[in-house]
Structure formats: C-alpha cells, structure tokens
Design brief:
Distance between the termini: 13 Å
Strand order of the largest sheet: 1-2-3-4-5-12-6-11-10-9-8-7
CATH superfamily of the largest domain: Gcn5-related N-acetyltransferase (GNAT)
Order of helices and strands: EHHEEEHEHEEHHEEEHEHEH
CATH topology of the largest domain: Aminopeptidase
Radius of gyration: 21 Å
Number of domains: 2
Number of strands: 12
CATH class of the largest domain: Alpha Beta
Bound molecules: coenzyme A
Oligomer: single chain
Structural class: alpha+beta
Length: 340
C-alpha cells in the first residue's frame, strides 16, 4: 500500500489552490473526527493559521501526502529553539478515510531526514486526542506518553458573567497591557514567568524558556509581526512592587472570536489567596469590554494540575477533551521504521 503514497514538502505561500483545499479538507475531517467539540473550521481559518503559525515555537515546516494525486495527509513540524532545540515538534494528520493504509507512517519517514538535518534528537507531539486513532498509532510506534493535558473551553454566551469576580485580595494591585509589558514591570514579569517552571508538565522534553526582559521583548516583537494580539494581566505585590501573578491570552487574526489563554502563574509565596482566579477573571472582563462578540476561550492545563483546573471550572470553563503528549528518541524511531 505504502508505495502509492507520495510525500513532499509543502510551502503554503506558493501552494496551488487545489493543494490548499486538500490541506483544508484534511484539517476539517480531523477536526470532525478527533475534536468534535470545536466550532467547524472554515477554509479561511485554516489559511489564516498557515499565514500566522503559533509564535514561540521556532520555524515551521509542512509536508503533504498524496494518494493518486489527492492530498490525504500532512505534517506540521515546529523546529523548537534555544533550550528545546533538540526537539522536532511534529504533528502528523491523515484524513480519516485514508487511515490504516500506511500514509501516516510514510509521512513520518519523509520528515525524519529533515529532523536529522536540523540536529533534532527527539520527536515530540503534544495534541493527540486521548482514545483516538492517534493514540493507537503512537502506541504502535512505541512512543512514550509523557504528559496528559485537559483542553478546557469557556463558552462566553453560555456562561454566567457573575463567575468572573475580579475582587483582588488586600496587598495587591492589578496592572494590564496589550502587546508590550511596561518598562517598570518587564524584569519582574520575566522573573514571575519563570514560576511557570513549577507547573506540572510530566516528562515533556520541551523546556520552558528561562525568561529575561530581553526574551520577553523578543516574544512581544514576534507576536506583533504575526498580527497576534497579546493581553496580559498581572497582580503586583504592593509591598515589594514585584509581579506576584500573571496571566496571558492571545487573539489570532484569523479567528477573531476565539481567545487562546496562555500561561497563568502565581509565585509560590503568593499562592492560596485567589490571585489566579482574580487575574483570569479580570482578563475575561477586560477582553469583553473591547471584544463583546468573543465566543470562547480555549486553554490547556496539565491533568495533574488540580489547582488550575479548579480555578478554570470556577470561571465557567468546561473540560472538552483529554489530550496526550508523546515522544520518542529519533534514532530509535528510525530503527523502528526500518524494521517495518
Ligand atoms: C495518527 C494518524 C496520523 C495515523 O495515520 P495512518 O495513516 O492511519 O497510520 P498508518 O496507516 O501508517 O498506521 C501504522 C500503524 O499504526 C497502528 N495504528 C494506526 N491507527 C490505528 C488504530 N486506529 N488502531 C490500531 N492501530 C492503529 C497500526 O499498527 C498501523 O499498522 P496496520 O494498519 O498495518 O495495523 C491518523 O490516525 C491521524 O491523522 N490521527 C489524527 C491526528 C493525530 O492524532 N496524530 C498523531 C500524531 S501527531
């Protein structure tokens, strides 16, 4: 069967309309099968994501697989940088009607030389729906499950806004910004982001960046270049003037009705006072002042992170699916595929 599959690199900027349509059909069918909780992707959504890939994960490279000329599968690989530059963050997606024909395996075989050429030693993938074909495929290739994550969604029109109480405990004040952290807070904000290193991330190979003011500025610039709007709310500790807790959200241009909730962290000395809930609630309220049409916010939380899951539930989030992250050493994976 594998002989008929043709896999080749895919450059969205120069792709033929037919291939872009094929790419979209694969993404849409995967969504219907593996992520039925999401609102249906439009063609423009998918093109928009190709134009504005996720920021902070390094350069992204694509492949498509064809059977009898028709696009039936694809790969999206982010070549992570800095602390994580040994990892190829790899997503392989096959149209449900072309599954179990060796397409996924053929795609992986085609991607591996590029992973090796770019100095990768590990293949990691983050967003496999638990209980799906993807989980069984990863098992068959002896990938190791390294983390389990809950995907949670806040559906704004269905949620009682009284849940977003942003009453701040005494001794703190709120600051917020869109795009650029104020100069007087950026160093302390970077330090507080390093508190994320405490969040349970299982055995992911990915390493959270060691944040500095310079790296915060570089990330802000990259987000701006990609037309991604960043919103942040922090709680500042009055006595020290330091950031005690932070939360961030991204608004992507091609999906104006969705918010992507990013990191939330409260420094250990300030936990247990409701700061996490308060800053997240304030962020939602602020967003809705400017974006009253916002439909939903998505967030991922480690399945073992009971505190954050509880905070999210209290804000009205519901858990929509469980996802697993897996990885495998690149050379072992190559040996595995050579034996098939
Ligand atoms: C995971 C995915 C890419 C696999 O694509 P595929 O083309 O069906 O995979 P292959 O045909 O190459 O499968 C190779 C082997 O994996 C195992 N496998 C794959 N899907 C399986 C399933 N649903 N149940 C049991 N075993 C399965 C089998 O051993 C299979 O060999 P076999 O068919 O000869 O028994 C596809 O199911 C998919 O797109 N899922 C959604 C996206 C996703 O979760 N990707 C995961 C990695 S990023």
């Amino acid at each position: 069967m594998t002989a008929r599959v043709e896999v080749e690199p895919f450059d969205p900027a120069h792709a033929a309309e037919g291939d872009l349509r094929g790419y979209y059909e694969v993404m849409l069918a995967r969504q219907e099968t593996d992520r039925p909780d999401e609102p249906r992707l439009s063609y423009e959504d998918v093109l928009g994501r190709l134009k504005n890939p996720f920021v902070g994960f390094g350069p992204v490279v694509y492949w498509v697989a064809r059977l009898r000329g028709e696009v039936v599968g694809l790969a999206i690989v982010y070549f992570l940088e800095e602390e994580s530059s040994h990892i190829g963050l790899t997503e392989v997606i096959v149209h449900p009607r072309a599954r179990r024909k060796g397409v996924g395996t053929a795609i992986l075989r085609a991607v591996i030389p590029e992973l090796r050429a770019r100095g990768r030693r590990l293949v990691e993938t983050w967003q496999i729906t638990k209980g799906s074909d993807g989980e069984r495929w990863a098992e068959s290739l002896k990938f190791l499950v390294v983390h389990t994550v809950l995907m949670q969604a806040l559906v704004i029109p269905e949620t009682d806004s009284a849940l977003w109480r942003d009453d701040l405990p005494a001794g703190y004040r709120l600051r917020r910004w869109a795009g650029t952290a104020p100069d007087d807070l950026v160093a302390s904000f970077a330090a507080a982001r390093n508190a994320m290193h405490d969040a349970p991330v299982g055995d992911l190979a990915y390493q959270e960046p060691e944040w500095t003011a310079e790296r915060i500025r570089a990330r802000e610039a990259e987000l701006r270049q990609n037309n991604i709007e960043l919103r942040a709310v922090v709680a500042v500790h009055e006595d020290t003037g330091e950031v005690a807790g932070l939360t961030e959200l991204e608004l992507h241009p091609h999906r104006p009705f969705w918010g992507f909730q990013r990191d939330t962290a409260v420094l250990p000395a300030h936990r247990g006072h409701g700061l996490g809930r308060c800053i997240k609630a304030h962020l939602i309220r602020w967003l809705l002042e400017d974006r009253p049409d916002l439909d939903r916010i998505y967030t991922t939380t480690g399945a073992g992170n009971a505190h954050m899951i509880r905070v999210n539930h209290r804000l009205g989030y519901t858990t929509v699916r469980t996802m697993i992250a897996v990885n495998r050493d690149l050379f072992e994976l190559e040996a595995e595929l050579a034996g098939r």
